[in-house]
Amino acid sequence: MFLGEYTHTLDSKGRLTIPAKFRDRLATGLVVTRNPSDRCLLVMPLDEWTTLTDKIKTLSMTDRRTALLRRVLFSAAEDLKPDKQGRILISQRLRDFAQLDSEALVVGMDNYVEIWNPTQWNEQVIQQLNNDGLDTELFAALGV
Questions:
Q1: pTM
Q2: Rounded to whole angstroms, what are the CA distances from 65 to 25, 60, 116?
Q3: Helix %, strand %, coil % of the chain (to 5)
Q4: 92 within domain boundaries
């Protein structure tokens, strides 16, 4: 399980150190790709990636939304394995997409991880919480 927010720096080569709490779950391999709904990156352990791709395989190839989802996820996907220091090399293409420069926010999302530009995280998530709050009707509908 991935929980918490961790700020890490990217070195000059684009390597990002994975938070120590996440390393065991990602040690055997992971996939990094674009998030189709936000300007951040998705990081998934291989088993979670397989679960996701199995679901996508069942969708119609001729549906435009499915085609776009496939293009966004698969064309940018990179399978990686952390080095001995727990770092992964994020390609320039993915760093450009997520607007990552020297600092990144690594955020646990239960079964996957998101990597954000800290400023974007603040604008997309924190400021929305401060302005709108969470929709309590959603929690009620979920029985939470």
A1: 0.90
A2: 31, 9, 25
A3: 40, 25, 35
A4: yes
The CATH number of residue 56's host domain is 3.40.1550.20
Residue given tokens 């399978």 in the structure block = 79
Domain assignment of residue 13, yes or no: yes
* Percent of the chain surpassing pLDDT 90: 84
**How large is the C-alpha radius of gyration of the chain?**
16
Residue 86: both structure tokens together: 């727990």
Please give the residue range of the domain that contains residue 45: 5-117
Asked if the structure places residue 140 within a domain, the reply is no
Residue 104 CA to residue 41 CA, distance in Å, equals 10
- pLDDT tens column, 107-139: 999 999 999 999 999 988 887 776 665 667 766
